[in-house]
Amino acid sequence: MSGANCPQCGTIDQVRRVRAVYEAQTGTYAGVSTAYTAPARSTVHTSGVSSTLLAQQLAPPPQPFTERQRGGCVLALLCAVPVAAALMTLPLLAGDAPDAGRNALIFWGVTGLPALVAALALLIHRVLARRAARQRFRAQTAAFPALFAVWEAAFTCGRCHLAYLPPGPFAPTGPRSVLVPGFQHLVWAVAQELRGSGTPR
Question: In Å, how far from its chain's centre is CA 124?
Fold first, then answer.
């Protein structure tokens, strides 16, 4: 039995590379729609990527990406509130009122201090989240070559609805196969074994 033969039915006529099936069942689309709402006309441009369920199940491993951090505007606003509160207390401190200092402190404590504490908490959260995102990105970058190599080597049989790795570097003891819905798990499992065994990647 050659490497391309299906390990379940033994035939080759319905066997194709996973990459070929994925590319054949994935495409882009673009369109324009026009809506008339008196007295104006609006035009909407749409575009995107369409894929069948089979293509989604046989999709390649995702490219490593850097997660975008959010909350910057909220952090800037929270930092601005204590500054504004401090500036607003200056007239109180400059006045000749007997309790000016105490009133200024109360005012700043009620308005500025909670915002400052919230800003510090958000800043710490952002720093920790950014550190975790960098660690995930490094892990994704390290894992991607092995994942993609395994995905590239895979075949699928349209008759058996099977995805498999033929005998070779990724299946040294014989074909490794799963039903198509479990293909992503197979890719991750084999790639993890390769990385754990020190196989070059």
Answer: 22
Which pLDDT score, from 0 to 100, does residue 165 have?
A: 92
Residue bearing tokens 């509130």: 81
* Beta-carbon count within 10 A of 48 CB: 8
Which residue blocks in the chain are alpha helix, DSSP H? 18-24, 53-57, 72-94, 100-153, 183-196
**What are the beta bridge partners of residue 28?**
49
| Cβ–Cβ under 8 Å, residues 30 and 45 | yes
Give the tokens for residue 123: 């800043």
Question: Whole-prediction pTM value?
Answer: 0.62
Whether the CB-CB separation of 141 and 64 falls below 8 Å is answered with yes
Residues of the chain with pLDDT under 50: 1-2, 197-201
Cis bond before residue 172 (omega within 30° of 0): no
What is the per-residue pLDDT for 152? 92
